[in-house]
Write a structure and sequence with these properties.
- 44% of the residues lie in helices and 13% in strands.
- It is of the alpha/beta class and 423 residues long.
- It folds into two domains: 184 residues, D-Maltodextrin-Binding Protein, domain 2 (3-Layer(aba) Sandwich), CATH 3.40.190.10; 203 residues, Periplasmic binding protein-like II (D-Maltodextrin-Binding Protein, domain 2).
- The strands form three sheets. It has a six-stranded mixed sheet with strand order 2-1-3-11-5-4. A four-stranded mixed sheet has the order 7-9-6-10.
- Helix 5 packs across helix 6, helix 7 packs across helix 8 and helix 16 runs antiparallel to helix 17.
- Keywords: Signal.
Length: 423
């Protein structure tokens, strides 16, 4: 399969550095010092920081090995990790939101760890037939309503899985809430490729690939209606265009109390619980078209080669998925467990998390399988560019029609891979 030229250049650089490096060279911690591991973590909330701090402290108690945490924001970790790898000063492991060309050539194969547990679909990142990333916990796309506004308007919303609304029912009811209250918008939606993919999956229930995985369908006419529906939502009346086009934070809009609903994810819950005081909110079931669907976030744990601590690093990663560790970590972090059958005490968040767990349980393996194929096609990559999402944003801006956006997706996909692309 053809790879993006930029990827080839980075992997070539990685290969040269790997050949030159040796396990005794200097590192952030002493290489070969198995009594201490350096763990670079992307964590942008206090809850996430506390979860990893608990994990580090607990592992040291149980094993005697110190976990030296280096906690960074999501934007900073990519830059710092890339620099560390290119200078052969990589940490022993890292928690990253996505896997990029900056470190695929350095990553440890975690397949043996993955095979020990009953992981949910979508919790692994595969590259060149090796599993190089495993989710620490699971965050999923999901819906919230401003319960105060909906109750004021006298409009009902789903409270059980049997009451899940269709996209058409949702838009009608959300518009009714705006009409009967002082809400500014019916919905805000996180500007995320995962949310767009989730909407498209649920709307038409179709895979982006043929059954044999050799033909890409996602730019085909099968997705025209789903894409058109998404673009039409961004009309500055139902939903503000500024979120998709200018990066305005939809969660902040929702927290003003003037937005009827939010399509974002389970990762917002702890922040909402700590910051929303002027209205009641509720997690609700995501609308469906042909099927129910959710998409999982990134949040991958990656181990690195050439540290001298590879064996101890894999021991620590394997320990992360013990039932009791997953249970406490997910309770602190506000995520669903990556392992099936793990019981988590979410306290006041329990009812909300029950909704998100049901979303995950009721989603077919198709979205996760498609994401894996899509990663093989276009990732890892240096940028956050997404063939599908980027072209739909052009349609939202009025630069192209939805059909023209699909044609461009098809052209870009064909130019970066050797996949056959259906029209």
């Amino acid at each position: 399969m053809k790879k993006i030229v930029q990827m080839a250049m980075v992997l070539t650089t990685i290969g040269l550095l790997g050949a030159c490096g040796n396990a005794k060279a200097s590192n952030n911690n002493e290489k070969g010092s198995s009594n201490q591991l350096t763990f670079m973590v992307s964590a942008d909330t206090n809850a996430k920081k506390k979860a990893f701090e608990w994990m580090a402290e607990e592992y040291e108690k149980q094993s005697g090995t110190k976990i030296k945490l280096e906690i960074l924001s999501g934007s900073d970790i990519e830059t710092k990790l890339k620099s560390a790898l290119l200078s052969n000063k990589q940490p022993d492991l890292a928690r990253v939101s996505s896997v990029s060309t900056n470190y695929t050539g350095y990553a440890l194969d975690l397949t043996d760890i993955y095979n020990k547990y009953d992981f949910y679909n979508g919790t692994k990142y595969t590259y060149d037939d090796a599993i190089i990333g495993i989710s620490a916990g699971v965050s999923v796309t999901g819906f919230y309503v401003n319960k105060t506004l909906w109750d004021e308007a006298g409009v009902s919303y789903p409270k059980t899985p049997e009451e899940v609304w269709t996209w058409q029912e949702f838009t009608e009811k959300a518009n009714e809430v705006v009409e009967k209250t002082d809400a500014d918008y019916a919905m805000a939606m996180k500007s995320s490729e995962n949310n767009v993919k989730c909407l498209a999956y649920s709307y038409n229930g179709k895979s982006r690939f043929s059954e044999d995985g050799k033909t890409a369908n996602f730019a085909s006419a099968d997705f025209q209606d789903a894409y058109q529906f998404f673009v039409d939502l961004n009309d500055d009346k139902f939903m503000p265009k500024s979120v998709m086009l200018s990066g305005e934070d939809p969660a902040s809009l929702f927290k003003t109390g003037r937005v009827a609903s939010l399509f974002s994810g389970s990762g917002q819950l702890i922040d909402f619980e700590q910051t929303i005081e002027n209205f009641e909110y509720a997690a609700v079931y995501t609308p469906k078209g042909e099927t129910r669907a959710t998409m999982q976030g990134g949040d991958y744990v990656v181990g690195f080669k050439n540290t001298g601590n590879e064996t101890e690093t894999k021991k620590f990663i394997e320990w992360m998925y013990h039932n009791e560790v997953q249970s406490e970590f997910c309770s602190l972090y506000g995520s669903l467990p990556a392992i099936e059958g793990v019981s988590v005490d979410y306290g006041k968040l329990a009812d909300h998390m029950k909704v998100f767990q049901n979303e995950l349980d009721e989603t077919s393996p198709m979205p996760a399988q498609d994401l894996s194929l899509f990663q093989d096609l276009t990732e890892p990559r240096d940028s956050d560019a997404d063939i599908e999402f980027d072209n739909l944003k052009r349609a939202i801006n009025g630069d192209v029609t939805v059909e023209e956006a699909r044609e461009q997706m098809q052209s870009e996909l064909a130019s970066t891979t050797d996949y056959k692309v259906e029209k």
